[in-house]
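Dear all,

This email documents one entry for the complex benchmark we are building for the journal club exercise. For each entry we list the sequence lines for every component of the assembly. Then comes the predicted three-dimensional structure of the complex as a token string, followed by one or two observations. Please use this as the template for your own entries, and keep the labels exactly as they appear.
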Amino acid sequence: MLNYTQHDESPESSRFIITTPQVNTTILAFESLDNEKMHFNNDFLQENVVEMVIAKASSIPENYCKELALTIKHIFDFKLESEDKTIIYISILEKSLKHQLMQRFVESYDNAYLKYLSFNVEDNVFCFFFNERKISTVKTWNSLAKFFKDEYAINFETKDE
Amino acid sequence: MEKKFNTKGIEFVPKNIVSDETKFKLNKLMAEKAERLTKLVCDYKSGSLSIQ
């Protein structure tokens, strides 16, 4: 696993600086979503969804190594394990390097409590991760389906239907 | 659906055609996120993220 330091821990945000041996720096941030950033019009989602963003802070071209995926997984695990009712939201472009990183991360996931709901629209992927021991999958799905229907006029079906 | 809820995750796709208005709103959402990413990197480079 790579070295990382934690910055600016607060109820609104927590940020982690991850550094590779080649001094390639990645910022991993978890931010609360206020009404201005994303208006869910739903107390359950507004209170519990935090956005996870991954940013490269160095000029070296993007290259998400296996160790970076493991380090993010470690931090991610800790958040879902230690925090009540957190839903981690990630929005990324489909087939991008970050999407590949997320897929690698999910494939390696061996914790039975991890659940995710992924909404693929056009070239965008909106993914919501949560701890099933603390958050109801059905309640999360119902809330998100209503949000997408009300806000974006989209009704969803499962991908293989 | 219940069976799917027992898996690790479920992927969904739109059942209906996505309107131009929705595409515009989603593009705006992604652009705003990109702005937040840029600001985060700027804050880091300027040293305004404090180490705990």
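Observations: Residues 3-152 of chain A form a domain with the Aminopeptidase fold (CATH 3.40.630). The helical segments of chain A are 43-48, 66-82, 97-107, 137-152.
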